[in-house]
Structure formats: structure tokens, C-alpha cells
Specification:
Distance between the termini: 58 Å
Number of strands: 13
Oligomer: single chain
Strand content: 35-45%
Structural class: mainly beta
CATH class of the largest domain: Mainly Beta
Shape: globular
Helix content: 10-25%
Length: about 240
């Protein structure tokens, strides 16, 4: 059986084989329950830099959760695909993968061409307003942290230095190591994933764009991505003008 690229996967397929890196893993809690989870979610990326989301049901978590970890590359077989959600999608793919106890994960030490460690779908600050209260797909942003407040992050959205407030809720903020930020030299370049775009303090149809975390939000500081170098160059250039 030959490998299938992520971009060629369609809903309602079986007997496919993929070669991917697990670039994100999280366990979303069920809304309204403090100690109940909704299985395991992960984002897979392949050599074409395309990404797709995969789900493990809670009943299969104990077995599957021990077989995969973020950052590793696997050959995966014996899974099926379905249609992706109509709202709160993490990646823009029409299909969604489902792993179960029959799914086989074979870890690979290396592959060529290399598979990127991350895959984000960034939205420029100027485009955030197009997603206000529109949650078909969640939003990834890249910026640098300018201030930390209790239960909140404040970051720069782009080179024009508009501040965008990001509010972190629940486990997202509890898992974030705020003290570690004190040991880092600025700029602290950070990726926030899977955010919901809202409007705050609306007056005469004008408000400030804000970002709220979702159950899928993860935070990456100085991730190994090409956009990071570009952002730092822009930051250094703008800083030299101040």
C-alpha cells in the first residue's frame, strides 16, 4: 500500500496509509465538567506541509494515548476519515481522521524530505475583523508578548505595533508557565493557536478586536518556523527606528 498525502485524503475513506509528524496533541475537557475529557485530539503534518486533525475517542484514550507523542513521525494505518466539523475547525481540511484500537502507529526515526515540526495557519492583524464571531475555523496568530496580566496575555499582532489582547481561559492559562517568561530576553515571540475572535467595548459600531482561547488553544514560544525569523527581522528593524 502506497502512502497518501494529506491533501489527497477525503471524507469517508478507509484502508489508507500516511506518513506524518504529530505536531500537536491535546486533551480537551468537556464543557461544564471539571474532570471529564473528550478523548485526544492531534494535528498531523506531512512532507507537503499540509495538516489534518485526528481524533481518538475517550474510550480508546488509554490505549492510543500511550502510542503517540508530539514531535514524533509515524507511519499510520487502519484508520478512517469523516467530514470535518462545520465550526471551530483547527485546520482548513475537508476531512477529519479517526483513530481507534485497530490503528497501527509505526514510529520512524527519520524521513526525507523532512517533515516540518509545526504547521500553523496565521491570520494577519488586518484580517482579524473578518473573523469576528465567525467560528467556522479558529485563528492562529504570531506576535511578541508585551505585557502579562492575571489570566491574560497581551501581544503585538504585526509590524504596525497594534496591541491585541488575548484572554486565556481554564486549563490553557493554568498550564502556561508565566514565570519562565522572566528568564527570556525580548522579543518573546509566541504563537497562540485556535483562538476565537471577538469584539470588545463596542460603541457606535466600533470596538476593539480581542482574542479568546478555546479548548484547542496551545501556546508555543519561539517555535522552529520560518515565520519566526521574518518576524524577528521586522521587530529588530522597527526597534532601531524608535
Amino acid at each position: 500500500m502506497s502512502f497518501v498525502h494529506i491533501r489527497d485524503l477525503q471524507p469517508f475513506q478507509f484502508n489508507k496509509k500516511i506518513k506524518v509528524r504529530v505536531c500537536r496533541i491535546w486533551r480537551p475537557k468537556l464543557i461544564g465538567y471539571d474532570d471529564q475529557f473528550g478523548g485526544l485530539q492531534c494535528i498531523l503534518v506531512d512532507q507537503m506541509a499540509d495538516a489534518i486533525q485526528a481524533t481518538v475517542k475517550e474510550i480508546d484514550y488509554d490505549l492510543i494515548g500511550a502510542k503517540i507523542k508530539a514531535g514524533c513521525i509515524y507511519e499510520i494505518t487502519h484508520f478512517h476519515s469523516g467530514r470535518s466539523k462545520t465550526s471551530h475547525k483547527v485546520v482548513p481540511h475537508a476531512a477529519h481522521l479517526f483513530f481507534n484500537t485497530r490503528t497501527v502507529f509505526t514510529e520512524l526515526s527519520s524521513v526525507y524530505p523532512q517533515i516540518p515540526r509545526h504547521r500553523f495557519y496565521f491570520l494577519d492583524y488586518g484580517q482579524l475583523c473578518t473573523r469576528i464571531d465567525k467560528n467556522e475555523i479558529l485563528t492562529d496568530v504570531l506576535g511578541h508578548i508585551t505585557a502579562v496580566q492575571p489570566l491574560e496575555e497581551k501581544m503585538v499582532g504585526n509590524g504596525r505595533k497594534e496591541d491585541v489582547r488575548i484572554t486565556l481561559w481554564g486549563d490553557t492559562v493554568r498550564a502556561f508557565d508565566f514565570q519562565a517568561l522572566e528568564e527570556l530576553a525580548p522579543p518573546i515571540i509566541t504563537v497562540f493557536t485556535s483562538l476565537k475572535v471577538k469584539q470588545f467595548q463596542v460603541y457606535k459600531c466600533v470596538g476593539k478586536t480581542v482574542l479568546n482561547s478555546s479548548v484547542s488553544t496551545m501556546i508555543f514560544i519561539d517555535p522552529d518556523i520560518q515565520e519566526l525569523d521574518t518576524y524577528k527581522m521586522t521587530y529588530d528593524f522597527l526597534s532601531s527606528l524608535c
